[in-house]
Write a structure and sequence with these properties.
With 152 residues, this protein is α+β, with helices and mostly antiparallel strands. The protein has a domain at 86-152. The protein contains six helices and eight strands. A hairpin with a 2-residue loop joins strand 3 (54-61) and strand 4 (64-68).
């Protein structure tokens, strides 16, 4: 009986950590009506051109819902979700590195760096991808540190 109770406590603790992590991700990710990347298919960035996904091919990974263009992209994501999720929760990489702020993005302004997806703000005559490219190495280090701080 004691072993059973200990096992239940470990399971409950594990579940609370998992749900806590999901809530933290939902709090910090760039979501539009609980949907990541404004409904764009994260896999599509890596195989050509960003494409809008469909609710028909929806998948929720650790509390974050993504839409996919087709069942093949959905399957690819399910096998390697961490590879395809946008960096910094889908917020502007430049802003995350420059000021640590969560700034919205244009889902069609992006860059793949070291097989990771980075998204950027691009409105009102300001394309932060251009600014990012001027000091990418330094901004990436700062953005990584700022993103980690959000989860502490």
């Amino acid at each position: 009986m004691k072993h059973f109770m200990t096992t239940l406590l470990f399971i409950a603790f594990g579940l609370s950590l998992a749900f806590g992590q999901q809530a933290l991700r939902q709090k910090h990710f760039n979501l539009d009506k609980n949907l990541a990347i404004s409904g764009y298919d994260p896999v599509s960035y890596f195989i050509g051109t960003p494409r809008k996904g469909s609710a028909t091919y929806a998948y929720t990974f650790e509390g974050i819902t993504y839409h996919f263009y087709n069942s093949q992209n959905l399957s690819i994501f399910k096998n390697y979700p961490a590879k395809y999720e946008p960096q910094y929760g889908g917020w502007c990489a430049y802003a995350m590195g420059n000021t640590g702020e969560k700034v919205s993005v244009d889902p069609e302004t992006y860059k793949i760096i070291d097989n990771k997806l980075y998204l950027f703000y691009n409105k009102y005559f300001t394309n932060t991808l251009t600014l990012w490219n001027k000091d990418e190495k330094s901004l990436k280090v700062k953005a990584n540190a700022n993103w980690i701080k959000l989860f502490k």
